[in-house]
């Protein structure tokens, strides 16, 4: 069980300069923007304009904070994201442009290279306790709420807002929150060769 603290992730500029990104996770661990199989990040969108293009990448995007983000594909309206909107799934090669409705926004982004990996993401509401069984690698991100305790057979810890939990193997996870919160959950499947995190 590996927990990434949002506060420990330094910001870096977007490929196209339109905002900043905090990378929470990348696999393989030594990968960069050109050769990753999996990448998870939180971005602050500072200006309106085109998204960076990622050929061969499948993306899931959701809004965490801000007054809304309107997205267009080839100039045609695609979606208007709010913090409670459905997750948006799209191809990284699509020509996407964005317009903030009210000031700066912050979003959460999962990217997988479709030739090597794929993911299935969903929202998870929690208020109390939940046992979560998973049959492979799992991402768990605390999008809204103060704290969630997490335990598996090996360890236990606490997620704070915008922290990420990464589990590389199948197992059972115990979750608990004393108040209502929203988590983003993603099951990840790598190709037959797997991912060498030390590569």
What does this structure look like?
By secondary structure, this protein is mainly beta. It starts with a strand and ends in a 9-residue tail after the last strand. The relative contact order is 0.22. The C terminus is likely disordered.
> How many distinct helices?
0
Backbone structural class: mainly beta
Q: What is the rounded Rg? A: 16 Å
> How many β-strand stretches?
17
Rounded mean pLDDT is 91
Summed up:
By secondary structure, this protein is an all-beta fold. It is built from no helices and 17 strands.
Secondary structure layout:
Blueprint: E1 2-4, E2 11-13, E3 19-27, E4 38-45, E5 49-50, E6 57-65, E7 69-73, E8 76-81, E9 88-91, E10 96-100, E11 105-113, E12 117-134, E13 138-144, E14 147-151, E15 156-160, E16 164-167, E17 171-190
Antiparallel strand pairs: 1-16, 2-3, 3-4, 4-11, 5-10, 6-9, 6-11, 7-8, 7-10, 12-17, 13-16, 13-17, 14-15, 14-17
Key terms:
RmlC-like_jellyroll, mainly beta, seven-stranded antiparallel beta sheet, disordered C terminus, 199 residues, 61% strand
């Amino acid at each position: 069980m590996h927990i990434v603290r949002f506060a420990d992730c330094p910001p870096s500029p977007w490929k196209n300069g339109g905002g900043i990104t905090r990378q929470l996770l990348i696999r393989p661990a030594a990968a960069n923007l050109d050769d990753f199989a999996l990448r998870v990040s939180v971005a602050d969108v500072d200006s309106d304009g085109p998204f960076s293009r990622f050929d061969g990448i499948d993306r899931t995007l959701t809004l965490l904070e801000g007054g809304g983000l309107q997205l267009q594909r080839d100039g045609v309206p695609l979606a208007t994201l709010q913090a409670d909107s459905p997750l948006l799934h799209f191809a990284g090669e699509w020509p996407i442009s964005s317009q903030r409705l009210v000031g700066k926004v912050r979003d959460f982004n999962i990217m997988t290279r479709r030739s090597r990996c794929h993911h299935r993401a969903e929202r998870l509401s929690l208020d109390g306790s939940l046992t979560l069984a998973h049959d492979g690698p799992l991402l768990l991100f605390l999008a809204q709420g103060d704290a969630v305790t997490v335990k598996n057979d090996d360890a236990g810890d606490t997620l704070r807002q915008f922290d990420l939990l990464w589990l590389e193997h199948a197992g059972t996870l115990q979750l608990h929150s004393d108040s209502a919160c929203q988590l983003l959950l993603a099951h990840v499947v790598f190709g037959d060769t797997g991912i060498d995190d030390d590569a």
